[in-house]
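User: I'm new to structure prediction. If I give you an amino acid sequence, what do you actually give back? Let's try with this one:
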Amino acid sequence: MTKSELVAKLANQHPDLRADDLEKLVNTVFEEITTTLVEGGRIELRGFGAFSVRARAARKGRNPRTGAAVNVPSKRVPFFKSGKELRVRVNK
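Assistant: Good question. You get back a string of structure tokens that encode the predicted 3D arrangement of the chain. For your 92 residues, that looks like this:
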């Protein structure tokens, strides 16, 4: 599902709200999640899951085309761990 599909579905479920307002709402939620992760925080949505940031150490990698060794720098990556309720509903 894309963001525009999410906004359209919310607009169908809530015809009393304008699509522009719903799009602003969705953008605000995503922006707050992004801002919190950039600052090193954690977001927990009970029953859905938790977003956090994990650090990956620098390592040696290989160029798949040439086989040459490549230094891969350390980095921070977003991580999502699904909640129990989400896992149960997906596996029904």
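You can read the tokens as a compact description of the fold. Here is one thing that stands out. The first helix runs from residue 3 to 13.
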